[in-house]
């Protein structure tokens, strides 16, 4: 019997959304936005957020793509995110563009005097004209350059709220790669963008979606492949199935603030932070797994793969889009870790 040929190594991208939080300040001005303290999450003199994340990748010799949000500078000015970007770049990681348009509401000098909950859609790109999208993207590129990064070639929209107009704007702005799609979070109106994983081309832009997978016993339910939403058993299962089927790139989503827990006392407007050992352990396990299986997985970045992915995208368009299913054991562990554990330990969810 002839053995099925190995599909070879698949690409794995460890993608990080680096962002500050408005902290609902636009509706409640007494709650100030949280900046680099939210990203670093310092506890006991050590950064349990970005510091832990960079240290973990360094220990395993891995590089990530850090989609860095820059419209926060409309409130914080450049210095806080420039500090964050400098730490990321110092370790040789890939820095690309991430935008949350809701930060532009801080350009109103009277925002404190006129508190209002931002209207639905104010943090989205999909209801804008292509020229406006292009202008916002070019503004973001300029800000990212001020923060010390190279001109980006890739973009990820806030909330993974993807739509065709974004790709038209990206083309006008000269960007090449997107990672806007996450079917488990939002399903684009355009059927061509509804990809679980891999690559597709839309309006001349190569989309590299955050990987979505099915849950066993709940076949209509999807989950993002993420540090917060997936147990390590689920991540391992999805990667193993992807390797067997030759599905890639596989994109994992995380944030620096995933690795710490903010605690408030109900008095102070700013939280104190403690490490989230569970999620920190998940990242350690993931890094150890892909490193131990280098014959199956190539951990790469958007900047390093732009040429290869552009060439592969046209070929993948005709290969279908197989959806992967996680294991029952992984789902049970995830339920215990994400639902039962916080209740038992009285942790914020």
Task: State the main characteristics.
9-stranded mixed beta sheet; about 20% strand; about 350 residues; TIM Barrel; alpha/beta; two-stranded antiparallel sheet
Structure description:
The protein is of the alpha/beta class and about 350 residues long. The protein has a single domain, classed as TIM Barrel (Alpha-Beta Barrel). The strands form four sheets. Strands 1, 4, 5, 6, 7, 8, 9, 12 and 15 form a nine-stranded mixed β-sheet that branches. Helix content is about 35%, strand content about 20%.
CATH architecture: Alpha-Beta Barrel
Rounded mean pLDDT score: 92
Q: Calculate the terminal CA-CA distance, rounded to whole Å.
A: 52 Å
Major β-sheet profile: 9 strands, mixed
The number of strands is 15
Q: Considering DSSP H and I runs of 4 or more, what fraction of the residues is helical?
A: 25-40%
Summarize the helices and strands and which ones pair or pack:
Layout: E1 10-18, H1 36-40, E2 42-43, E3 46-47, H2 50-60, E4 65-69, H3 73-76, H4 79-90, E5 94-99, H5 130-146, E6 154-157, H6 164-173, E7 177-178, E8 200-202, E9 205-207, E10 212-215, E11 218-224, H7 232-245, E12 250-254, E13 260-263, E14 272-275, H8 277-292, E15 297-299, H9 302-316, H10 328-345
Parallel strand pairs: 1-4, 1-12, 1-15, 4-5, 5-6, 6-7, 7-9
Antiparallel strand pairs: 2-3, 8-9, 10-11, 13-14
Helix pairs in contact: 2-8, 5-6, 7-10
């Amino acid at each position: 019997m002839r053995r099925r040929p190995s599909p070879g190594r698949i690409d794995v991208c460890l993608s990080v959304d680096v962002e500050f939080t408005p902290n609902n300040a636009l509706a409640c001005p007494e709650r100030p936005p949280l900046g680099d303290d939210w990203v670093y999450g310092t506890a006991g003199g050590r950064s349990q957020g970005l510091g832990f994340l960079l240290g973990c990748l360094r220990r395993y010799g891995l590089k990530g793509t850090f989609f860095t949000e820059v419209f926060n500078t409309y409130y914080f000015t450049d210095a806080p995110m420039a500090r964050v970007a400098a730490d990321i770049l110092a370790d040789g990681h890939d820095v690309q563009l991430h935008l949350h348009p809701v930060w532009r509401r801080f350009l109103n000098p009277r925002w404190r005097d006129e508190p209002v909950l931002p209207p639905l859609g104010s943090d989205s790109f999909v209801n804008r004209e292509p020229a406006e999208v292009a202008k916002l993207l070019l503004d973001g590129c300029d800000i990212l350059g001020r923060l010390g990064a190279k001109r980006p070639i890739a973009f990820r929209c806030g909330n993974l709220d993807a739509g065709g107009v974004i790709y038209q704007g990206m083309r006008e702005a000269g960007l090449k790669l997107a990672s806007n799609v996450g079917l488990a979070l939002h399903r684009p109106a355009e059927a061509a963008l509804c990809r679980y994983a891999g690559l597709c081309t839309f309006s001349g832009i190569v989309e590299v979606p955050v990987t979505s997978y099915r849950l066993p016993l709940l076949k209509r339910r999807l989950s993002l492949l993420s540090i917060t939403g997936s147990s390590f058993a689920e991540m391992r299962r999805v990667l193993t199935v992807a390797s067997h089927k030759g599905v890639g790139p596989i994109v994992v989503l995380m944030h620096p603030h995933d690795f710490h827990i903010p605690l408030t006392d109900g008095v102070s407007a700013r939280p104190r932070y403690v490490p989230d050992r569970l999620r920190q352990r998940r990242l350690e396990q993931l890094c150890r797994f892909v490193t131990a299986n280098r014959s199956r997985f190539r951990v790469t970045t958007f900047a390093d793969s732009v040429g290869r992915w552009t060439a592969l995208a046209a070929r993948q368009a005709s290969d279908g889009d197989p959806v992967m299913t996680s294991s029952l054991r992984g789902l049970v562990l995830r339920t215990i870790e994400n639902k039962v554990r916080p209740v038992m330990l009285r942790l914020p969810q």
